[in-house]
User: Fold this.
Amino acid sequence: MAAERRLFNVQEFARRVGVTVRALHHYDRIGLLRPRRNRPAGYRLYGREELLRLEQIVVLKSLGLKLSEIREILQHPGSVALVLRRQRRLLSERRAQLDRALAAIAAAEAALQPGRLPGWEMLQKIVKEIAMQNESNWTEKYYSPEARAAIARRRAAWSPELQAEVSRQWAELFADIEAALGEDPAGAKAQALAARWSKLVAGFTGGNPAIQQGLNAMWADQQNWPAPASAYRIKPEIQEFILKAMRCGPAPR
Assistant:
């Protein structure tokens, strides 16, 4: 019992659990693992409770979760099922991408003749599939940790059927805007298109300003998107038209 109640300073605790002192300081700084404090000196002290907390962190990290997501789970235990469901879906998507890359490589191997390279089209397919795997999380750099945690919560309830429906609505909206490029941005038709645009964006952000800020940063950086994402770029004339329509619309309340 005495051993269970013993407290360790940060160096001793780091050696015993196999993490670095720097990592423990970082966990303390972001509010993930708060040690006790020796008063009045203020030294960090760790005991059994902190060890159990660290074990939870290690388990969640092993599942591929980010520290911001782990902190959210530990602060709100009820969200663990939603976050794990979202993580399972992400890992399934990555596995599918890896399977496509492996299939492309296997096809190239099967078609390879002795002493000759496979066709360039097949090589391009392999490169594309591998690039998609490497860049599957390229959008995360635009969002703050708080925004990524909020997106994770929203994604947990985002079904493939809903994604297909939203994609269809965006495609229809782009086509309708392109057909209306000659319209007055302040006119009723343009304003209706702007309202549809705002509604679809709100469906993603949920009205969260942190998500909106990251989304704005991502779209402002379209020229630096990875090659596989180029298909999602918005035509400049469509973007310019909708921005004009929004500037002509009523001020947000």
Q: What stands out?
A: The chain has three domains: 2-62, 78-136, 150-248.
